[in-house]
Every structure is written in C-alpha cells, then in structure tokens.
User: What shape does this take?
Amino acid sequence: MDDLLTDFVAETREMLEASEGEIIAWEADPTDRARIDTIFRFVHTVKGNCGFFDFPRLASLSHAAEDALADCRSGRREADSALVTAVLAIIDRIVAMVDAIEAGEECPEGDDEALISALKECEEPIDGTDGDAEAHHHQSSKGHAPANAILDKDGDHKTEAAAAKKVDPIAAQRSIRLPVDLLDRVMSGVSDMVLARNDLAHRLRQAGTQPTIDGPFERLTTILADVRDAITRMRMQRIETLFSAIPRLVRDLAADLGKQVMVDLEGGDVELDREMIETIRDPITHIIRNAIDHGIETPHERLAKGKREIALLSIAARQSGNTISIVISDDGAGLVQDKIVAKAISTGLVTEDECAKMSREKIINLVFEPGFSTADEVSNVSGRGVGLDVVRDNLERVGGSIKVTSTPDVGTLFTMQVPLTLSIIAGLTVGAGDQRFAIPQSYVEEIIHASAKALDFTHVGETALVTFRGSRVPCLTLCDVLDLPPSDLENAQQTMIMLRLASGDLFALAVDQIHSHGDLVVKPLAPAVMKSGLYAGSSLLDDGQPVLLLDVTNVANEHGLVSDARQRVLQTADSAASNKAKDASRAMLFTDFAGRRSAVRLEMVQRIETAPVSALDLAASQPRAVIDGVILPVIGVDQTTMPPEKIRLLRLTDGHCELLHAVREIDDATEITDKIKPVADDPMVEGVTLIGGQTITLLDGHALFARYGEAPAAASRRVCSLPQSDWARDFLAPLVASAGYQIAETEGEKVDVAIWLDEEFEAASALDMTFEAPVVRLRDRVDGGDDTDTVYRYDRDGLIAALQKACAAGGNS
Amino acid sequence: MQELLVMAQIAGRRCAFPAHDVKSVIEIGAITPVPCTPDFILGITAMRSQALTVVDCRRALGLDEASWSLDDRAIVVLVGGHFYALRVDSIEDITSGLGAPEDVPGGFGKEWTRVANGMVETRTGPALLVDLPLLIAGPDALGVAA
Assistant: This one.
C-alpha cells in the first residue's frame, strides 16, 4: 500500500511538471486542443488514481476540473483566463494535498467548494449571455481575435494545426526514478574502479609487456571509460526541469503587475549537472523578475510605442563545448542609460567625467556592481535587496559569467555562461615545494617558462612583475601564497601560469613544475580546510594521492589582485586618458647602478653632467656632489658599483629645486607610448611602462623632489642674522646653517630673517627699534605657557618651522 | 543503554567514540599536508576514492602532541557529510557502554570539557565520551565560544 501511495505521489508530481507549461500556453491560446488535452489527462489521471485510495477531496477537485476541461474539449465551453486561473487554483490545491499525503499529514484545510464554484462561475457568463453557446462558439471565441482571423477561418484552422505541431513536447524519455544517494554511490564506486585500474596499469608496466594480459586490460580500460562517461551523464538533468516552472512564474508576475507577457522557451533538452541547475535557478528567476517588473512596459505603454501589447520574454539554452549559454531576452523598454549613470554617480561608483568617457555597453554593465538597483520604488516583485551583483557573484563562484546588452525601447538581453558541471573539471596539476596542487584549466590563459626572454621578470618594490603580451602583470609565487618554504629553484627555472580571472584581471603564478593536466573529479573539503580560503576542493590523482584544488579567485582576492568595481569600471577611462597624454610624454631612458632600466620625464632633465667621482661626497647620509660650484643632493648612488673615475649624472630640476641622479648609462630620449601601469609599493616610482619592448621603471618626479629636492645651495640661501653671543655662534649657527640659511657675517647686512633672544628683543622693542626683517624670538624656558610668539632655544624643529614661517611672511610683505 | 563504543587513548586519557559514528579504522598512508590550515589538521589522505581530512586529536584539544605516542591507525568518522581520520595515541577496543553518559561535578578540565559529552562507564572502566563535531572544530572554537 505504501509503495502504491509513493508511486501515486511521484506520478502526480511528474505529470504536474509536464503540464504546468501547457496550462499557460493554453491560456495564451484557449483554442489550442493539444494543450487542453494534456491538462485534461493530468486531472483525469489524478481523478482515476484517487479511486484506489480514499481521498474524497482530491477526487471531487479533480473531477470538477475534469468536467470543466471536458466541456472545453467538446466545445461546450470557452476557455478564458478566469477559467485558467480557476484550474490553476485547483491544481495548486491538489499539489498541496499531495505534499501532505507524502508527508503523512492531514490534508491542508481549505474550502474546496469555493474553488469548484469558481470554475462554475466563470462558466456562467458565457451560458448566460449566449443562450446558444454551442452554435456560436466559434464566433464568440474570436470576439477579441484579430479581424483577419474571423475572415479567414480556414487559415485559422491551419495555424491552429501548425501550432499544435510546433508545441509537440520533446519526445518523452523512458525513465526511472533513483535516489540521489544511490547515484553518488555508483559514481564513487566507478571512481574507485578507475583508481584500481591505474594501480594495476602501473604494476603491469613494471612487469613488462605481457600480450595475454595487455589485451584484456585494454578492453577493461575502454569499458571503464565508457561506464564513467555514462555515470557522468547520469548526473545530468535536462534544463527543462528548470524551464518548466518559468511559464507559471511569468504568468503570475505578469498578472500581478498588469502586464501581458508571452514566454518562449528554447533548448529545454540541453543537459546540465543537476547541482548546476540548482545554482542557476535563482539567477534566472531573478533576471526574469527584473525583466517583467522593470523591463517590460504595461500594455498601454507598449501600444503607445507602437509595439505589440503582449511582450515577449524568451529564454534559450545552448551547449557549446563544455559550457552552456543561457540567453534571457525581453522586448521591453531596455535599460535606461541615464538612470544607470545617475545611480552610479550617486553611489560613488564613478564620477560624471568618467561616465562621459564610458561606452554605453560599459555603462549598462554597471548594473552588476554591488549596491545597484535602479528601481524607483521597491515593489514586492523585485528590488528585495538582492541585486544583480549577487547574481554575478553566484555565477562566478561556479566559474560562470554574465553580461548584458540592451537597446532602448527594443529590449534587453542577458547572456549567462555556465560550465557543464561542477564536479568534474579540467585541471592542471602543478608542483610547489614537494607538493602538488591543481588549478582549474578554465583560468589558465597560457603557460610560459620563466626563462623566456619575453617574460622579463622584474621586481618593483616587493612586487614581482612579468611582461605578458606587452603589459605588466603582477606575479605571485605559489610557495609564498601557501606559506611553503621557498623552493630551491631559481626564478628563471620556474614556470609561469598566466591566470585570467572572471573579472578580466590577469596575473601570473610561479610554480616549480607542471605535472599533468586532465579531468579531475572534485570532492568538497571539510569546513576547517575550506576556512583557509585557498582551496576549492580536493581530487585524487591517478596514483591515488589526494591533491588540493586551488581557489584561484580567492587567492587573487587575498593578494589584492582583483580590481574593485570602481577600477574595473574605470579601465576604459584610464586608457582613454593615457592615450591623450601619450603625445606629450617624453622620457629620458637610463640604466641605474642597480641595473634597473628606468626613465624620468624629459621635462625634468636639465642637463647631463659628467663629474669626477671625487666630486661626490658619499660620507653623509644624503650623498651630495659639487657641480659648477653648487652643492646638490645626489640619488641613485651605489658605492659598490661606482665607476673608478667619472660618473654620469642627470641634473633634474622642477624649475626651482635641483637634484642629481647618478646613472650607469644614458640610453636615449624617447616617447612613452605605452600605458603606464601604476606601482603601489615604491613611492619613488610612478609606474612601469614598456618602451621598445622593454620594461622601464618610470621615476616619480613629484616624489623625488618632495623627498630630496633642494634649491641649489649657492644661489638662493636666505640670510639669517643671529644674536651676538658665544652660544649663538657655537650652537645656533650650525643648526641654522644646516637648515639651509646663510649666517649674516657683518652687522647691518641685509637679512631675510633675524633670530633674537627674547629678553634682548623685549629690550630692543622697548627702545622702539625697528626690525627690518621678520624676527624669530628664542626663550630660555622649556615651557613657554601661552606664549606662542617665542620658541624654546633647543626646540630644533620648532625653530626651523618658525624660521620658515618668518621667511614666508617676510617674502609676502 | 548498551551502546557500542570505540575506545581510544587521546593524550594519555581514555576516550570513547560512539561506534555508530565510526565508519572504519584504517592504516594511515601518505598524508598530503594542507598549507595554511590550523595545525591540528595534519592534511588529507585517501581512503579508496574518498578524501579524508586527517585530524590530530591531541592538537584539536589544544594539547601538545609530542608527549604521546601515535597509533599508525586512524579512526574514520563522518561528521557533517565529511569524512575525517582521527589520529590518536592508540586505538584500544570496541566495548559497550554501561548506562547513559553522566556529568562529573567540576567538569573534566578546560580542554576536555569543551569536547566532552559526559563520562561513560564501560567494562574496562570510565571513559570520556567525545563530541565529534566539537572535537573537529579545533581548539580555536573555544576562544570563539568564550
């Protein structure tokens, strides 16, 4: 009895799934006999099956629906949307009851009579207004049909027939139901068999060729591969199972919002891993909700725009290679660019200027950025706080992607790409230290040996960079990422794997070796291991050893390699800006003493000096050199690699200050044509760029002068007069001089600033002396109380600041 | 209550695992270390086509493992849908518990109380009944809870 009941529940469910889409299609075209037949069969079967069991309420419900549908079939009655709603309500009640039966509970309470009478009510108006319903049935059914359909009845019949043919459901496959657990067990059994086979193969190879064994073994291998393939297919499900719920969803939403929407589903026979189907269910639902709520206009608006009042929402699935693309398109209003721009600016995602430079495509793809929702008001359909950013995140987590294109008043088209399966992925096995790790093949853009010349492995600050197809790409070392002891291999002997993230960011991962690539059956990891955020799962290699699958996106995230939304958005703006700048940028190329090929902007270079090494004073913490009788700071000096006699120096100026940059070799003046990639680590570096195919570190002029720049000593020193005392001569003078001031030597010399001891100053001012230069007053006490006009005589920083302030004040007056 | 228990020594103390949770006892083969995980996770190892997370019970309790010997067999348990191989000092026997687990006034000491489901009497004497999910959560879980 229990078995029978289970079968009843399962059969009811299955038929229901098949007929739900039919009901909606039937509503769109009430004369479609094929659809009515399907639904009729459903309620008829339910009614029939109820006879075996004692379910009087189920029986009466299905009987009422069957009666109504039978009337439609025989033409005694018109199917209209009210009838469809009533039938749907009955089917919903049946589902609720079936659920309760399965759970072994009491049937849910509810007024079945109301549902049944709803069926009858919507029947009455036809009978009432049209006494001879049967005779005039055709005419009344065409009451709101296009006029030409009434005129051309034959044609109408033909289209009806064509429609019936077109909607032939995909040929039903014979199927049985299996518990998922059993499938998983079979699957892991087959995996075990493959491992055993690999082990055996290994031993056979060791034993040498044995024709009597090798033949059957080969056969075993082939069979096993077949079985494995078939088992994999078992995990697949037709995307139909997802599609079948869509018509109902669309119908209910459209009815709620007073819109008219027709659904067109295509590619229901595409097969997908059943876990993947669950993963994409929410994203698809979300997009459909959005489309109906925001995209599709009300019938009135549509007519005003000259469109058909019934909107078309089409969902198509296609398989290409090992990805499935799902396209969801509507013919609604399209995404409104201005609205997106306004929203993006108000949330601080982009600025107005940046928006102005962005293409329409870039702008509409902003809808995937976090915190984005253009809905003016939150309706109960969409705008429930879950945005498209979540949709994109969910898809990217499983290695998929999504993008949108849209034309105003023509429609919007979302394209989703998802991998065929979650559990079997193509992977690359790599070595780091003495361990092996796997990387999903889908991330791998290219594999390059690090010794390759084109790679040009360099360090800028702490960041390692490689050159890949003409651009600078950050490089991680797998050993560092995993905190493994660094391998003995030289950088040049490592292998670079160029990894492209779903966000489009590219980075290089240095590994010790590449072992193999192939399909990996990915198993989940324990939560404690997942917590590290580095791994996506584990897999077993052919020799039975477990291997960890790296979570590439997360690793990149941890190291800040994923550009945030804002940067990603700005990429185009950036390149546009640098394009403009490129005409103007010229740079002086040189090789510094560290062997680094660098450049400074040509505007900064005043002259190339050649000086004897003896002119350099390297003893001080800041090396200096005397050029043309002027003392200038020198940077870029490396004492260990100094040339014996003469040294080349670039004399840089910002118009006021000057400094010297020691160089090993001057190359040339050239144009910076390539994009300058900013480097965050080294403040003295503006960025790296490519010149003539080589990477060049471009020094940051601003930072250099901010740190080292000083005015040429001889020319523009300010003169400072000191009090006449031994203390001033022995203590104060060196300090003032080292701060860059010249000490007035004679009384009455014109000075820029004067330092007075406070008590002398007070005495002098009491005598009404005039002070020609600004005055800095020194006091003896450490704590000057509220007295802010004076500086404690040993407050070095305070004194220098006061001098600068006084000079500035003097300069202004 | 005559529940079957797998008896083992952890850090020199007798502990009991409900036999229902114990899937098997395996010889530990090669363990693949997992970098950047807490130190009580020794790595993963393969049992047929299953990957097991190898947990050192002594470290999972927050105790120093160096003072005790290590059994080259491990207890395989299923917790939350994942298989774990538990490494202990030694695996003793399977026995049946006499009566329900009881609490002992004053607890079992800080580390042990965290993972204890109480004391259970067995034919071979009293033992600490281990709560597997808490054991596998590791010593840091204590800090979070406190």
Remarks:
- Confidence is low (pLDDT under 50) at residues 124-171, 376-385, 565-583 of chain A.
